[in-house]
Structures are given as C-alpha cells and as structure tokens.
C-alpha cells in the first residue's frame, strides 16, 4: 500500500451526506460554526513506561513481514512473536479467550474479553502484526537496523513501531493494567490482530470477521482500527495539531487485461503487435476516468473541519457540508475543482483508475504471443466489480482482450456515524489524552485497513480508524512504510493511556 494509502492527507475536504442530511438544503441558512468538543478535562494515566518500551522494542525484532509474493512467508517469525505476546501479558492470557485464526494460514489473533452484560453489543479493537518489507535501495538511509527495535535519542525505532505493533502493544498494555486492577468490562471486548493487513487481509481479518459474524452478534457497537496518527499539519491548510478519525473506506478491485494472439519472428511483424493492442486498451481505460461525486463521509468531514478553515471559503464548505446528493450547486462544483488539483484529495472524489503492471516479451527479436496488464481501482460506493468490469470492457471495445478480476476485491464500506456516541467518546478520549488544543475531524479513508472487512458488513459499520499516537511532524509520518520508522518513548506512554481511558469510556457507550 502506498505511503498515503491508509489515509488521505487532505488539502480540502468534502463528501455527500446520507438520508439524515438530505433534508438540509444548502440554501437554507444552516448554523455553520465549530463542532469541536470543548472543556474536556485531561486524564493522567500512570504507565510502566520502561517495561512497556522494552516489550515494544522486542516486538519489533520479530520480522513478521508481509511480502507481495505470498509464498514468501516466515511462519516461524509469527510463531515466535505469538509466544512472546503470551509470555509478556500473563493476566490477559489468564482471563481472555485466545484463538489463532486465519485461512489458509492461521496466524491472526482473536481475543475475547467476556463482558459482564451479555446483552450489550460488543466492541472490537483492531491492529495488525505484519509489517511491510524494507526496500533494498532504502536500507542505507536507515539510521538504525530496521528490525533492531533500538531505543535511542528518546525514540523507539524500527519497522512496525508505528505501523502497527505500537497499537497491538498499547492495547495489550492497557488491558493488562485494567486486569491488574480487577476491571471487567460491561460489554464484551474483542481484539483482532491480523497477520496480512499489508496485503489486504484476505487470510486474517476477513476470516476473523466471518467468525465473529457467525457467532450471532446482531451488532458490533464500536470498532477501532489504525489509520492516521495525530500530526500537526497533516491536513494541508491547517497547521494545528489534527486528529483525523476515519469513518469510511474505499473499496479495492484489480483487473487483469490480457491478449493472447499470434506471436512470431520480429522480421515479419503483423500490422499490430499484441503489445501495441494491449497498450491501446490500457490507454483507453486510463483516459476514461470515473466521474467525480461527493461522498457522504466527505460532507461529514467538511462539516467538522470547514468551520476551522479560512473565513473566505466558509460559504463553499457550508454548501458541501449540508448539500444533498441529488443536486450539485456551483459552490460544490468549485469545491470539486479545488479538490481535484491534488492527487490525494482527488482520490476522495471518484473511483480511481491506476495502471500498475504491464508484462510482455522475453527476447528482442521475438513477438510475444501474449501480453498482460493490471489496472487497480479504488471504488466509491456503488462501483461494484461488475460495474467496473462492464465499464472497462465497454471502453476497450476490443474482443481480443480479456478482462478478469484477480483481486480479493472489497467494496467501499458503510459510513460510521460521526454524530453518534461512539465518535463522541473517541473524541473525548483523544482530548482527555492530548488536550483541547487540537482539531478532531472525521475523514474519508482513500486506502483501507483490516477493519474494512467489518465496515463493509451491516452488523459492524460503526468503525472508527485512528492510530492513537502523537507524531511531532509530517516528517515523522514518512516512516510509515518508509525509512527510519520511529515513535517518541513519551508518546508511546500516552498511547497506552489513550487505550486505558478508552476502555473506561466504553462503559458509557
Ligand atoms: Zn498499518
């Protein structure tokens, strides 16, 4: 997944709102003032920081890599990591039910912390064990060994320390602390720690979602998974520290385009070679972009973030925040034009089309008998694989070219409620942990994480995504899938406090 895949660095926000908003016409005078929660009292949580840091450092040392080539999988690294987790959190393993799940490879962890009141719908905390590989050509830019788990200059360093073992261990540290105090949650809390998030989660999180759904819960009340960490300036145009809470995620579809025709000797070429025929087809697909539309999650984001943005653009943000999906006003059109100037915000407005692979030919004097290409789409709601395949075939209009879905495709997800109690308790917990001097806003995630396997199903649509840790700057954020991945020791302590406080606050959901 590209570095910005998991969440958008948004230049300008926007999206289309659901039924609850459809009654709000843009030309009706709507109150458009700050939606930020104020006056939340800080909560101090005492953490065994030294012990916790040692454990996270050790966790980073297990090379639980997800390679694109799925046959290249280090089972032992996962087994050793699992044993380390069991040994490190004795109370968690004494009290919670632990299951190792996944198909065909069972390396995901599902924990169930039985609540006092079985009638309450459960909550789920998610994170993932796997990490992306170290790109060979970036190795010399690392200031430490990527899998050393070095603790140096006030930071914990290494692959996975920010994406996403920090979140696994902050959750486990918080649970261990709560258990030591004799706490039992009212509602059942499950932990889902996937083993293949970085390749879409088809073996791990998807199977965990199947298992939990089959257990007959009518509804999951609250799901929390990773996304953007708190970072100043992560939202362009806003220099303030910002906490973005993902409320919806795009889908994922990859199509293979192929041509199988006559090859031959390059001394006697046909009028059109297979490579050229396929190149023409992918060119047509790239040129036929899907239309722009404003997703509900974008409208929600603008509703929360718009009032914090410059005065001059307030009418535009107001029109988007309270617009409806049946009509497009001039102000909404202007918003789309502004968003479309940047690849990140543009991706929030439509099903994207990206030609990612092209393979043909093995020798300079041989015309290859076949050529294949792959196009990756990130669908908006409604653009199902069937819709996309029909669009592609129609655009190519060439019977020689076959089109097939090669992905473990997922649809765009439902939208979590940004006005509901789940969002509010999350914002409260963020402010209890990091104070009131920051902007909290919902946003539309243009990539996706393991939680999409829950959020795309009706029984678990209230999924909120945020990586509960504070970064110093956008530079530090570059460690996500990049080099010198690191987090501040101090902030890791606060992250544990965040999950500890969240477990308390969930009592009031
Ligand atoms: Zn991640």
UniProtKB/TrEMBL annotation:
InterPro entries: Bact_exopeptidase_dim_dom, Pept_M20A, Peptidase_M20, Peptidase_M20_dimer
Domain Peptidase M20 dimerisation: 247-399
Keywords: Hydrolase, Metal-binding, Protease, Signal, Zinc
Keyword Protease in record: yes
SUPFAM superfamilies per UniProt: Bacterial exopeptidase dimerisation domain (SSF55031), Zn-dependent exopeptidases (SSF53187)
Signal peptide region: 1-25
Keyword Ion transport: no
Domain of life: Bacteria
Family of the protein in this entry: Belongs to the peptidase M20A family.
Name of the molecule in the record: M20 family peptidase
């Amino acid at each position: 997944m590209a570095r910005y895949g998991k969440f958008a660095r948004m230049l300008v926000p926007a999206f289309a709102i659901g039924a609850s908003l459809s009654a709000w016409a843009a030309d009706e005078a709507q109150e458009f003032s700050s939606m930020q929660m104020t006056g939340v009292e800080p909560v101090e949580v005492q953490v065994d920081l030294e012990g916790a840091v040692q454990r996270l450092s050790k966790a980073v040392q297990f090379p639980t890599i997800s390679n694109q080539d799925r046959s290249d999988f280090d089972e032992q690294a996962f087994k050793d990591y699992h044993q380390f987790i069991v040994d490190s959190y004795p109370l968690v393993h004494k009290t919670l039910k632990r299951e190792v799940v996944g198909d065909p490879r069972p390396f995901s962890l599902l924990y169930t912390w039985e609540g006092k009141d079985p009638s309450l719908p459960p909550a789920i905390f998610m994170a993932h064990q796997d990490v992306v590989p170290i790109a060979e050509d970036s190795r010399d830019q690392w200031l430490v060994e990527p899998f050393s788990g070095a603790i140096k200059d006030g930071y914990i360093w290494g692959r996975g320390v920010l994406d996403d073992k920090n979140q696994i261990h902050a959750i486990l540290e918080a649970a261990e602390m709560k258990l030591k105090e004799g706490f039992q949650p009212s509602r059942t809390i499950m932990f889902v720690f996937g083993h293949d998030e970085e390749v879409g989660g088809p073996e791990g999180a998807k199977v965990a979602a199947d298992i939990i759904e089959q257990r007959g819960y009518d509804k999951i009340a609250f799901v929390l998974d990773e996304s953007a960490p708190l970072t100043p300036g992560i939202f362009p145009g806003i220099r303030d520290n910002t906490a973005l809470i993902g409320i919806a995620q795009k889908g994922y579809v990859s199509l293979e385009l192929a041509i199988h025709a006559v090859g031959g000797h390059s001394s006697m070429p046909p009028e059109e070679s297979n490579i050229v025929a396929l190149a023409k087809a992918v060119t047509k697909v790239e040129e036929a972009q899907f239309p722009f539309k404003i997703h509900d999650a974008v409208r929600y984001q603008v509703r929360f973030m718009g009032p914090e943005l410059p005065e001059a653009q307030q009418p535009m943000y107001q029109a988007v925040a309270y617009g409806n999906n049946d009509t497009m006003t001039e102000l909404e059109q202007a918003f789309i034009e502004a968003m479309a100037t940047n690849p990140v915000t543009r991706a929030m407005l439509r099903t994207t089309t990206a030609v990612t692979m092209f393979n043909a030919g093995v020798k300079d004097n041989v015309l290859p008998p076949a050529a294949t290409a792959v196009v990756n789409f990130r669908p908006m709601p409604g653009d199902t694989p069937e819709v996309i395949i029909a669009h592609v075939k129609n655009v190519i209009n060439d019977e020689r070219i076959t089109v097939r879905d090669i992905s473990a495709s997922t649809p765009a997800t439902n939208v979590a409620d940004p006005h509901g109690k789940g969002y509010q308790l999350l914002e409260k917990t963020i402010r209890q942990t990091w104070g009131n001097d920051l902007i909290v806003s919902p946003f539309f995630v243009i990539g996706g994480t393991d939680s999409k396997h829950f959020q795309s199903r009706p029984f678990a649509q209230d999924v909120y995504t945020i990586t509960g840790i504070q970064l110093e700057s956008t530079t530090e954020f570059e460690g996500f899938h990049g080099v010198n991945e690191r987090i501040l020791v101090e902030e890791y302590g606060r992250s544990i406090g965040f999950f500890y406080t969240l477990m308390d606050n969930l009592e009031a959901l």
